[in-house]
Amino acid sequence: MAAALDILNRYWGYDSFREPQEQVIESVLEKHDTLALMPTGGGKSICFQVPGMMRPGLTLVVSPLIALMKDQVGQLKDLGIKASAVYTGMSSREIDLKLDNCIYGDIKFLYLSPERLKSELFRTRLVKMPVQLLVVDEAHCISQWGYDFRPSYRNIAEIREFLPGIPVLALTATATEEVREDITEQLRFKNGKIFKKSFARPNLSYQVFIGEDKTGKLIELLKQTKGSSLVYVSTRKKCRTVSLALRQEGLEAGFYHGGLNPEDRSRIQDQWLKDQFSVMVATNAFGMGINKANVRLVTHFDMPDCPEAYYQEAGRAGRDGKAAKAVLLYRQGDMELIQERKLSEYPEIDYLRETYQHLANHYQMAIGSTNPEGYDFDLEQFAHKFHQKPLQVYHALRKLKLFGYLELTEDLHQPTQFRFVTDHKSVYEFQIANARFDPIIKALLRLYGGELFSIPVNINTSRIARLLHWEVIQVNKMLQSLQDNGLAVYQPKKDQPQIFFTTPRQEPDKLQFDRKTYQERKRSDLGKLNSIYQYVHNHLVCRTLQLLEYFGEYSDKKCGVCDVCKGPIPDPDFKVIRNDIRQELTRTPQTLAALTGNLNRIVPVHVAQVVQLMLEQGEIAYDKLERLAILDANA
Predict the structure, then answer these.
(1) Would the pLDDT of 427 be above 60?
(2) Which helix (H) or strand (E) is 110 found in, with range?
(3) How far apart are CA 107 and CA 109, in angstroms?
(4) Helix residue spans in 386-437 (DSSP H)
(5) Angle, to 10 degrees, between the axis of helix 21-29 and the axis of helix 46-54?
(6) Which end of the chain has a smaller Cβ tally under 10 Å, C or N?
(7) Between residues 87 and 335, which one has the greater pLDDT?
(8) pLDDT at res. 414
(9) Region 506-519: what's the mean pLDDT?
(10) Are 24 and 158 within one domain?
């Protein structure tokens, strides 16, 4: 593996691989289908980028997030490695040019959204590409039992038929044993190998706090923390209210969610990465691909809806290997709220048909028509027009996406792009014959040079307008005219969410919905929610061991740093807590969760520890309804 180490050092500056990067790379180079499970921050991208640079040809990378693709392409380009990306929202002409570069140019990495895989344009070009490796990032998305199932991921297995003998590398940070088996089956593994780094994070202290004053507890935690912190909340509104409450306490806090405009998102993210403020309050739209190693605290202000999401988000703490905390705040009633929200995510099938019809009417789409360019989509405006609640519409769109009828791109920011599709001579002749275009062509060439004749270039229309002393709207009109005259490809900036019909428009009653799978997935999601609820209320078992067991990893080695492992009860308090427990259970048998809630003035882990001792001493026991009950009322 000397050659691999040389590549690693030359481009990334590292002298050695992390476990199990080297084994994964070796498996890929031996052309084994490979599944690698590595926790957040474990260096998954190195596992395909190094072998991709070692072998001639192209590495295809399927990824579900546009922001993540753009981030990785940018990082590779900064290293001097040629990379490109194709995703939903690009024009056919732009995609065509990028795919051409992968066939006739020397592009090393092509990132693709899974929806692109089934297009005839892509498949026609694929057979001409010098592909040497197929990579599936966030591979849990291919499993309907994964926490973020994407139906479009099922297209990956089909394109393997176009790539005989080409190995596949599947990567994920979170997958249960059931999901791992589903990944290898769906990707049609042959001669496959699985590498799994332990899900244990020895430097990460998992903690749960149950109490009514979550804001007060959050402020206390943040004031105790030296370094960067990340606070996850469930809604955009809470981003504002929680960050405001923190600033009122003198904490430097910013907030981030998908509803901010692209410039603000980029600015806020950059400020936090550069430690210009210490606390980021965000929805789960923030974090994927964020490479910040010195986060000392990740706090979930609201309970996440599954262990997979919690593990991945909590894992953004302590990526530098130094001690860090992952804290989950919970108060009574949170479970009922999130359970209600989870149920609302599964609208009735008839409502899905109704929403589909509204969309077709909204965009005036005829039966059988398509529009590969997609449509700008304003959720609030659409909901108001059809007298619907925005959240209901949103959930319906997500489920129409699940069944493969729509694609909703919620975080699309596409800068203005421009490229000449003729040679220098033809452009010059056009300038001479059409004097009114002379200023804009000269400005383009002055600012962006000859690169405009080879690839689509991101251009700044405001900068061009300032140079020409024009209005931006005039610049945009002239760029459009250059395209209309066949001289160029012009892609205006896109900031709004985009919606795409992934199949020709159909009559609503012709849409096919697998009701059995729909109900099974609903039950699966509720089961995951119950698993995270059990994690919150299990104060007897080490937090790390609970998470390991959920992901099918079994160990008896306690972490020693979580709230369960570091929660000894002061001797003077033991008798007081024991008496309080006896009084509660004498009143009525209770589950541990109910008992902990009723004794919310006592640290939950102390309640759990005293309960455990009372169970061991035969003072209390579980009844047939799994409630704690007094055995000896006279003790």
Answers:
(1) yes
(2) strand 109-112
(3) 6
(4) 390-402, 424-433
(5) 40
(6) C
(7) 335
(8) 65
(9) 91
(10) yes
pTM for this predicted structure: 0.72
Same domain, 266 and 346: no
Question: Could you tell me the CA-to-CA distances from 167 to 39, 131, 157, 191, 425 in Å, in that order?
Answer: 23, 10, 12, 10, 45
Neighbours of 40 (CB within 10 A): 18
Q: Which secondary-structure segment (H or E) carries 131?
A: strand 131-136
Residue 301 and residue 188 share a domain = no
In a domain, 26, yes or no: yes
**Number of separate domains in the chain:** 5
User: Which pLDDT tens digit goes with each residue over 15-53?
Assistant: 999 889 999 999 999 999 999 998 776 788 999 999 999
**What is the side-by-side order of every strand in the sheet holding 34-37?**
83-86, 109-112, 58-62, 131-136, 168-172, 34-37, 193-196
Task: Assess whether pLDDT exceeds 80 at residue 572.
Answer: no
Residue 633: the pLDDT is 55
Are 294 and 442 contained in the same domain? no
**321 and 447 both lie in a single domain:** no
- Range of the structural domain that residue 304 is part of: 204-332+524-550
Residue 33: Cβ within 10 Å count: 22
Q: Are strands 417-420 and 488-491 parallel, antiparallel or unpaired?
A: antiparallel
Helix (H) or strand (E) holding 36: strand 34-37
Residue 379 lies in a domain: yes
Asked whether residue 562 is assigned to any structural domain, the reply reads no
Per-residue pLDDT band for 191 (boundaries 50, 70, 90) equals: confident
At which residue do the structure tokens 């929200």 appear?
341
- Among 229, 209, 227, 206, CA closest to 217: 209
Total residues found in the chain within this entry: 635
Dihedral in degrees, nearest 10, Cα atoms 178, 183, 185, 190: -130
Q: What residues contact 209, with CB distance under 8 A and at least 6 apart? A: 217, 327, 328, 329, 330, 563, 604
pLDDT digits (tens, 9 = 90+) for 307-342: 999 998 999 999 888 889 999 999 988 999 999 999
Please state, in angstroms and as integers, the Cα–Cα distance from residue 244 to each residue in 219, 493, 510, 546, following that order.
12, 32, 49, 34
Cα 176 vs. chain centroid, distance in angstroms? 17
**223 and 281, same structural domain?**
yes
**458 with 492: CB under 8 angstroms?**
no
Q: Residue 74: CA atoms inside 13 Å, Cβ hemisphere, count?
A: 9
* Beta-carbon count within 10 A of 590 CB: 18
Lowest-pLDDT range of 141-150, 396-405, 451-460: 141-150
Q: Which of 547, 542, 538, 544 is nearest to 607 (CA)?
A: 538
Residue 207 contacts residue 563 (beta carbons within 8 Å): yes
- Report CA-CA distances (Å) from 615 to 227, 573, 600, 621, 632: 41, 18, 21, 6, 12
Distance CA 264, CA 172 (A): 30
Q: Which contiguous run of DSSP H or E holds residue 219?
A: helix 214-224
CATH number, domain with residue 366? 1.10.10.10
Crossing angle of the two packed helices 307-314 and 515-537, in degrees rounded to 10: 60
Question: For the chain, how are helix, strand and coil distributed in percent, rounded to 5?
Answer: 50, 15, 35
Number of helices (H), then strands (E), in the chain? 25, 21
List strands edge to edge, sheet with 406-409: 375-376, 498-501, 406-409
In the prediction, which pLDDT does 293 show? Answer: 85
Q: Which residues contact 240 (CB under 8 A, 6 or more apart)?
A: 255
84: domain CATH number is 3.40.50.300
Quick check: 120 pLDDT over 90?
Answer: no
